[in-house]
Amino acid sequence: MFEHKVEPAWAAVEQYLGAAVVHPDDSLQEAVKAAADAGMPAIEVAPNAGKLLNLLVKISGASRILEIGTLAGYSTIWMAKALPDGGRLVTCEYLPEHAAVARKNVDRAGVGGKIEIRVGAALDTLPVLKDEGAEPFDLVFIDADKQHNPDYLEWAITLGRPGTVVILDNAVWEGVMLDPGIDDVNGPGIVAALKMLGEDPRLDATVMQTVGGKGWDGFALAVVR
């Protein structure tokens, strides 16, 4: 990941909002600490973004969630806490060592019984879900390697249904669509995903810019038509 340039006021406002409005509980803060202790990159969503995911689960009435990119399970916990009784979340994580940290975090948070972690490249594990005849997912959160964003969107449609909510993180990435030279590894996948969101007739989407402790970025919010 490239180095973000962060305006101090953005981070300060984000911290204020977290303390004044969002109130992440101890399990979420412990999940961040566990990730740091394990030497994992600090690229989990910000607390206010995690709460947004939580609210989107509640607003949409989702009872089946698919997450592509688990990391240490921070966003996983936010979403799982919003699931109704009997709800289920399947999350895909490439690295076994990250999945192990995530499993401890979700269990500590008291939501482990709702969560299944599938380990391996998502483009290998997602077809298995299809082959197993998995019920359609109500909400899909994509926050994995950006090179495959268009592929992940395709799977969100395949494993979803009309009305499925799709959230794609890191959709702005310091304005990479204006200057592809910023990141020639992740940029093409991000831009291709934006093109798909705008042109694919199966999706109805928008993109919101954000600033904060993670720098200048944003997320896409879509519904499967």
Q: How is this structure best described in words?
A:
The chain has 225 residues and is an alpha/beta fold. The chain has a single domain, classed as Rossmann fold. It contains 8 helices and 7 strands, in the order αααβαβαβαβαβαββ. Helix 2 (26-37) packs antiparallel against helix 5, helix 3 runs parallel beside helix 4 and helix 6 packs parallel to helix 7. The longest helix is centred in the first third of the chain and has 15 residues, at 8-22. It is globular and about 40 Å long.
Radius of gyration equals 16 Å
As laid out across the biggest beta sheet, the strand order is: 3-2-1-4-5-7-6
| Total of DSSP H or I helical runs spanning 4+ residues | 8
| Bulk shape | globular
Largest sheet, in brief, is: 7 strands, mixed
Total of domains: 1
pLDDT averaged over residues: 95
CATH names the topology as Rossmann fold
CATH homologous superfamily descriptor:
Vaccinia Virus protein VP39
